[in-house]
Amino acid sequence: MKKSILSLAISLLALGFTACEDVPAPYEVNDSGNNTSGVLLEESFSTSLGDFAAINTVGNYPWTVSYSCAQVTSYTDDDGDGTKENNPAESWLISPQLDLTQVQQAYISFDYILRYANASELKTNYQLLISSDYSSTPATATWTALDYNPVQGSDWDNWYNSGKVSIPEAFIGQPQVTIALCYKANAKAATWEVKNFRVAEGAGDSGNGGSSAEATGDGTEANPYNSVAANQYASSLADGEESPVIYIKGKVVSITEQYSTQYGNATFYISDDGTSNGQFYVYRTLYLGNQKYTSGDELKVGDEVVICGSVTNYMGNTPETVQGKSYLYSLNGKTVAGGGEGGGTTEGEATGDGTEANPFNSVAANEYASALASGAESDKDVYIKGKVVSIKEQYGTQYGNATFYISDDGTSKNQFYVFRALYLDNQKYTSGTLLQAGDDVVICGRVTNYMGNTPETVQGKAWLVSLKSNGGTGEGGGEGGGTDIGDPSESNGDFENWTGGKPNNWSTTSTAGNATLSQSTDAHGGKYAVEVGGTSSANKRLGYREMTLPAGTYTMKFYTKAATAAGGSVRPGYVPVTDGKVGNYVYGDYTNDLTQSSWVLVTHEFTLNDETTLCLVVMNSKKPGANVLIDDFTLTDAAGNVYIK
Hints:
Blueprint: E1 39-43, E2 53-58, E3 64-65, E4 70-73, E5 75-76, E6 85-86, E7 89-94, E8 106-115, H1 122-125, E9 126-131, E10 144-145, E11 160-161, E12 165-166, E13 178-185, E14 191-201, H2 227-235, E15 246-257, E16 266-271, E17 280-285, E18 304-314, E19 318-331, H3 362-370, E20 382-393, E21 402-407, E22 416-421, E23 440-450, E24 454-468, E25 498-499, E26 502-503, E27 517-520, E28 529-532, E29 540-543, E30 547-549, E31 552-562, E32 568-578, E33 581-582, E34 586-587, E35 591-594, E36 600-608, E37 612-620, E38 628-637, E39 642-644
Antiparallel strand pairs: 1-14, 2-7, 3-4, 4-14, 5-6, 7-13, 8-11, 8-12, 8-14, 9-10, 9-13, 15-16, 15-18, 16-17, 18-19, 20-21, 20-23, 21-22, 23-24, 25-26, 27-28, 28-38, 29-37, 30-37, 31-36, 31-38, 32-33, 32-34, 32-35, 32-37, 38-39
């Protein structure tokens, strides 16, 4: 995890003391007439816990300093079997006492990351507390929970802020005030990291980064949920349960995956005020009109949006929209009734009856497929005619099929999505005329209403009946090229080919591959392996070049061992890459306790629901953070096709 190293000292000197005098506890505060900074307590936790005390009341999982922050977790391997377990715990991080007798108002703020918590326990197991009678034992003190509403993160890179959490009036003017963070673990042991803890004079807000933290709305079109209410509603669902259709409004906080013509959906966060506090996760939502994005306004941070669709409590701890079952209902007040990929609008005249003698046009094909239940296939083959608008995957000998769009006039208006259709005579393509925009075609096969919102042909169950080349007229032209995987024989999964001291193809244009790589003659097969540098301060990744893979199930395999006596730990996975920017990393299991003496085979299977541009990665874990060796890397799909060897 990427950590920022800060060096902030405790700023607790009163003007009446010299630099050599000690400050007694409780911490004294200047009267407001002389205090210029207003900071009552400040601790970065960059190198130590400072004057904070770490106390365990259940278990032995104390707050410690790690990666320039205070950290606590009880997800540990206590029995030495190599597998971490969720252990019960109650761990306190307790501040020195503060004298607030001369203070009119005060607030608390800090940065944090909280992961792997049960959503239902966010307010009960990760609390910010205050007391005016604490002495040395948490159980004997009277604690008041403050209005801190933690947000669960999805990675180790993005810090959240508590906001200015107001100290209640009952504690203002008290001579011995103590503040505490209390971590609890029951069936689920989260990890909580904290830095930049501050108590300062001044008016606070109600917590959660300035957001009101008030749930509003009822989820209807007339009265959408705000982000707080959406989080609460989705958190109440069982793991994996999908809700009925609801509406959610907010401002865009950040964009993980921008709308593009490649996938047609986007992933982003929204909140009431456009900050990360109280934000809700909008995952792979379709564009305006419940259609895939083909063109239009892209999202910007600060845009006001309304989302319509189903939500879920993913893995029981991440409230979010359901992939492909939500859409952008409005963007800065703009709404549409149709349009977009896969047919969208049904403006225009539907013609034909779907027979060979009288094929559907694109409008009729969209209407026919849209009438099917979500995921249902038509019970018969139908014929569809039109002009090629654009080509997403050109015919090639590797897969033998193609993906493209057709419409009556060769423009994107009313286009129909032909998905992975075979070539002439219902055969895989081996040679022949390739598609061009503007070509006249007739397609025959089964159609479906994919995900209930995308009319298209069924993969492998449709084919090209006729192709009349018109010399490349029409709109746009094709993307061509098919799936960018290259020749497997040149993929360099065996790390035998190096250029300029780097293994061929093992270089990424994004940040996916961030490790230092070097050639090693300690190989599993052939002459060479790659040595992946490690560090105890952050995870490092070996990344294969960006590639586009169709939807399907894939298997990664590679051999690994420790490069030094320090041992090693690796984790396979991938990360989507959009416009050169990485999304959320998707990992498999750790392989721990690597040694120098033997190679270990790692196998990882993953499934892509959509065509995805990604980088395959092998994480070299920061624990222990030593160098590891990787060799004989392969990637295959469920049909046995080889992508990397």
